[in-house]
Amino acid sequence: MPLYFLLLIIELLSCCTYNAIGMQENAVEFSFDELQKVIPNLPESKNTRPLTAKQQEYGAEFRCPLVVKAGPVKRSPHSVHQLQPFDVQVVAAMGDSLTAANGAKAVKPLDVLTQYRGISWCIGGDKSMEHVVTLPNILRKYNTDLRGFSLDEGPADTVSLSHLNVAVPGSIALDMPGQARELVKRLKMGVHGVDWQNDWKVITFFIGGNDLCKACIRRLADLHTLESFVSNITAALDVLHREVPRAFVNLVPSPDVTEERKLNKGLVCSVLHIYECPCGAYSRGEGTKTLKLLQMQYNDALRNLATSGRYDTKDDFTVVYQPFVQNMTTPTIMVDGVEEYDLDFLAPDCFHFSDKGHSVAAVALWNNMLATVEEKKTTVNVSDTVNCPDQSRPYFTTYLNNRAARVTRSVAAAAEAPPQDEHLERQTTDWLHKSLAFLAAQLPDREAEDDFFLEFASYGLLREEEVVAIRGCMDDAGLPMCSYLREVLPAQRGSAPELLLAAADEEGVEKAYPVWHVMLGVVVGAVIVCQSIAIAVLWKSGSKRRQDLLSHGESLSLLSGPGVKYV
């Protein structure tokens, strides 16, 4: 046994040598199976918790207005951009050991091998919110018939307990297309009583930590490049987009694994970090900078993918970037006047979330789902509590409904402002027309447009006859620029043009003008120019020809009508 520990310590020290770009020259990749061989031989961790910790619970009181219904929900929105908490009927998740909840209830290092899926932050369904805070347990306050959440302990292939939690410990981005296909298979099989076609689903997609943890290993570098990472994530999301109807996908960014350097506490955590995250725990100097840069590139790519519109081509599917993990750091506490890392949020390996850590992550995800794009947090605050949906916008935020809400708020501000002069009034009216066209372009479905027009109407901005007029204008010309609206709205509405025009520029209402309108204008302009040049050339050549003919005594009718001759 002493020799075994000596070898581990030598192995640990060998991981500390990096070259200038942070690439580990002789590093060895350790599989999860190898980790299982090591852990039983380790002594107690510095972060080993008392045995009572396994029975400790981190629940929370539900303080939001009680809107839970008896039995299955009756409401079923047609658009993902109108999805509210009590509409969600299914939860699912993809990822690695953080989603499988390895070590979440662990009281000793060996327990880190156990997957406590029932308390996983985004997919666990053990007990209730008062005992265990998870995303499903929050959602079950709104819909008691929620399905798909994982229970108890066990691997992903124990479908009777894991249900729609297909996360596998040790997974990297390369494994995500396969997990997406497995999730689709389970959905179509009706696992946990899922109605594949009709149920609204919230899917949480969290990966990237293991890619970063192994990115410095030279022989594995090609697996974890930015290009490889983005390609695999895109392929997985494409599977979901193509195969899964009625889905809201939470795309969670990669964590900063260089935080692990601070958590090499004692022999156990230090040794386990060799297996779990060698690059994060033992990077130095340029190696740390390179790893943090790669994390930023990963997350920028994920954000760009979510906001690109690639997954907003259907009214029943969207992907939203939830950035709360992006700048997450280990919480601290004061001990005898000294600030120390609060290891209660971590398992005995100082790497995975403990049950307390899963509870905090669940609250952060939920709050980000409700927050506007501008208000989403990029880190976790352990003192945050479960937010309630805003009654004025009770739906989960998507990129499309977030833009529409901002336009609506700007128009509402205009309605409350005092009237301005006639010129500014006209500017405001034009902007309002463009804004409505922008909304129509973003939400082309007629029923979705109705909902947003009703929202405008709730601010006293549109009457029924005006909505009818807008409909007619949009159907006829593609833009609500009818004379009726030009005449009626300026006389009846106050405005704050500076605010509105600024918001119009920011929201890109120029999208209301289709590209083909611009192209048509260019083509028509080019044709007119060409015709003018051709006429000028013909006139000049005709004049010369006429003079030549006159000099020979010939008659001509070149530019005149019939019967007129030049002699």
Structure description:
It is a single chain. The protein is mainly alpha-helical and 567 residues long. A hairpin with a 2-residue loop joins strand 5 and strand 6 (338-341). Helix content is 44%, strand content 5%. It is built from 19 helices and six strands. Helix 1 (2-14) packs across helix 9 (266-276), helix 13 (399-416) packs antiparallel against helix 18 (497-507) and helix 14 (422-442) crosses helix 17 (483-492).
Radius of gyration: 32 Å
**Extended strand count:** 6
Multimerization status: single chain
Range of helix content: 40-55%
> How far is the N terminus from the C terminus?
122 Å
State the shape. globular
Tally of DSSP helical segments: 19
Q: What spatial order of strands do you see in the largest sheet?
A: 1-2-3-4
Taken in chain order, the helices and strands follow as: HHEHHHHEHHEHHHEEEHHHHHHHH
| Average pLDDT score | 76
Global structural class: mainly alpha
Unreliable runs, pLDDT <50, ≥5 residues? 6-30, 50-55, 68-73, 442-446, 476-518, 549-567
- Largest β sheet strand count, sense and barrel closure: 4 strands, parallel
How much of the polypeptide forms β-strand, as a percent range? 5-15%
Summarize the structure.
This protein is mainly alpha-helical.
